[in-house]
Specification:
Blueprint: E1 25-26, E2 28-30, E3 33-35, E4 42-46, E5 53-58, H1 65-81, H2 84-96, H3 102-106
Parallel strand pairs: 1-5
Antiparallel strand pairs: 2-3, 4-5
């Protein structure tokens, strides 16, 4: 068996020098937009690498569910008409570059 000659050492997410950028605060992604939770409350999200706080995430309430369901229902028809390859391309574009996918995302709102 081959041995690993060296291992890479990276800073944990949320720390300076980390190869992973982490926004300090995340809302709810609903209908193609980031929305603050209706409660205005956020909770600490620990890094899976260190269990230390790396960002804050929305502490959502039942009132946040209706807008999310409305957006899901609005997207259902166009998403259902898309081919499996089309849905896969959309997902790949979202995971590769969340900031550059606005044009891709808007095509699913028809």
């Amino acid at each position: 068996m081959a041995a690993i000659a060296r291992t890479a050492k990276h800073e944990a997410p949320g720390r300076p020098g980390s190869p992973v950028e982490v926004k300090q605060r995340h809302g709810n992604f609903t209908g193609g937009a980031w929305l603050a939770p209706t409660t205005g409350n956020y909770r600490v999200n620990p890094s899976p690498a260190t269990a230390e706080a790396c960002c804050e995430i929305a502490s959502s309430a039942p009132e946040d569910i209706e807008p999310a369901l409305d957006a899901a229902h609005a997207a259902r028809a166009s998403w259902g008409r898309a081919s499996a390859a089309g849905r896969d391309s959309w997902r790949a574009a979202r995971s590769a570059s969340p900031r550059s996918s606005r044009a891709t995302r808007s095509t699913w709102r028809r």
